[in-house]
Amino acid sequence: MAQPPIMSAQDRSRALEVAKAARQERSALKAQVRDGSLSFSGVIEIASKNQVVAKMRVVELLESIPGYGKVRAQSLMEKCAISPTRRLQGLGKLQMSALLAEFSKPSVHRGKLFVLSGPGGVGKSSVAKALRVVPDFWVSVSATTRPPRFNEVDGVDYHFYSNEKFDKAIEDGEFLEWAAFAGNRYGTPAQSVQEKLDLGLNVLLEIEIDGAKQVKAKLPQATLVFLEPPSWEELVSRLEGRGTDSPERRATRLALAQEELAAASYFDIVLINDRVEEVVASLIRLATS
Questions:
Q1: 13-102 adopts what CATH topology?
Q2: Which of 10, 34, 48, 247 is at a distance of 20 to 30 A from 194, taking alpha carbons?
Q3: How far is CA 276 from CA 122, 127, 212, 286, in A?
């Protein structure tokens, strides 16, 4: 067996720099695909003239396309009989034709993403519940590590994860955002959100303020909506009216609510929850404007 050529330190350094530049170029291109500014066919055209792009693995490109996570990308590759290690330059004519046909289908007008946050007791869950029956709206179901309550259904109220499953989801980049709250963790599965947006549905995430900031960092086009109470006194009344909270828990919630109200300026839109129906009507107007 022939021995590989011996490289000098200078040659190795140069090769590492070239490899780094190639990774950066492919990473920038995938970012354009993720934000929708570059189509699949556009990448294929670039690859026909650019060896760096041509050497990109097919699976990397597919996973960059909005709505295509690991599972959906793998399914498409199996359907087109494409090896997991296949690069763009190695695609056969039939494989290329199948992929181009897949991404040349008439596109549906993409839905809008809304993130609803606000202090505890302001009525976020009531707004989300009302939006579930509104046509063209889909309310995301969060994953959580907390145990289900007696009346909660897995996949309807929450996706109930073990700590191990939640850790694996974080490791695999499956969450659009996640945060710890009251001793448990909560996260938004990214794939279902992207799929619903691709179908033309408007999507609502009802999440905590830290989670809203994570979503905005990843998806700047998301509209952050902050829900405020009509007055501080009304919020205090609502929180004190929760029969399930101890006096200590209510005091903690009130202190946290004061901090959360201070975050309103970070949001794109502030709505006052006098009546749930009015908030829902405002969200529908935003979605159709």
A1: Helicase, Ruva Protein; domain 3 (1.10.8)
A2: 48
A3: 10, 6, 21, 16
